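User: Can you fold this complex?
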Amino acid sequence: GPEELALLERLLGLPKGNKYGVQGERKVPVLQTNNGPGLTGLMTIAAHLVKQAKKEQLLGRTAEEKAVVQQWLEYRVTRVDGGSSKEDTRLVLKDLNIHLEDKVYLAGNMFTLADILMYYGLHRVMVDLTVQEKEKYLNVSRWFNHIQHYPGVRQHLSNVVFIKNRLYTNAH
Amino acid sequence: MGFGDLKSPAGLRVLNEFLADRSYIEGYVPSQADIVVFEAIAAPPPADLYHALRWYNHIKSYEKQKASLPGVKKALGKYGPADVEDTTGAATDSKDDDDIDLFGSDDEEESEEAKKLREERLAQYESKKSKKPAVVAKSSILLDVKPWDDETDMAKLEECVRSIQADGLVWGSSKLVPVGYGIKKLQIQCVVEDDKVGTDMLEERITAFEDYVQSMDVAAFNKI
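Assistant: Here's the predicted assembly.
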């Protein structure tokens, strides 16, 4: 929501001053602009901020990378925010765990907006996971721990702890 | 430390296990540590060691920038899990890095310099601490001293109380508080060193002034 966009602004080094509102039951964020109705939607506003900050590489470099970034942004809004049941969350973690098996970042080898927004979106989920669950979704845990240490990302959000020694599984 | 022989399947398995929950050999950004290990591997790890393969492919993408990655190259034996025997022949690091870290500290593995600096600082702190004089435990006590009746000379009563001297006892301010029927009690503050003066002793000595003092109570007691 708007709080997340404020975090993103700070991460991008943008000056403050943008005004945000929310729309509808789903609390879709709206960026108020000087002329016109404003920009609606988390992904849209986030992409706009990235361009404002002249950090387009965060949206991907190649056409393929850009598509992958968009894919994960869409996933974040539809599956992470949209799904609210325990089952939905479990499926998301399962999906991400498989996807991240052979990747350091969501889009492959580079840190992008997809990682940022997925981190913010998943924070409330990761905070509540048990040690056993964190081990079960080992790749997600690895990725999450990595992103929360990326300079400027975590800000005031709580640090999620990941134990180094595996307690539940021995070999992979 | 070290991964054992990285040219053998056993060594690669150690590397794989190590990288299961890490994106990089050290810390959270690609560094010379990754380059050292990368160059020690003959070929891409097999597909079943998928953490090692993930890491390998990722580091490969930094091939062109490898000279500019942060950090200083150390001997291969200095990286990796602490509980693996270093077979590279380099000096072993006896510090156990893989303890369960319940508080999730940010530094996965301290570099040699950071460790030395930290130990230096610890030594400084310890010596500073030992030079500080021992802190004396003190308490601030508020006493209520009650006279027999409203005719008791409160000024004399106070004089008696204040005449009580002891090592570790300092009298503070006082006031007269009416308790009814014209009777006033003396409320007087004192600071005592816990080891030297106790309320029992104070009570004994105050109530010894039988002519003036009917009883004494501790109205308030605070550690300072």
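Helices of chain A lie at 2-12, 42-52, 63-81, 86-99, 113-127, 131-136, 138-148. The CA atoms of residues 79 and 91 of chain A lie 9 Å apart.
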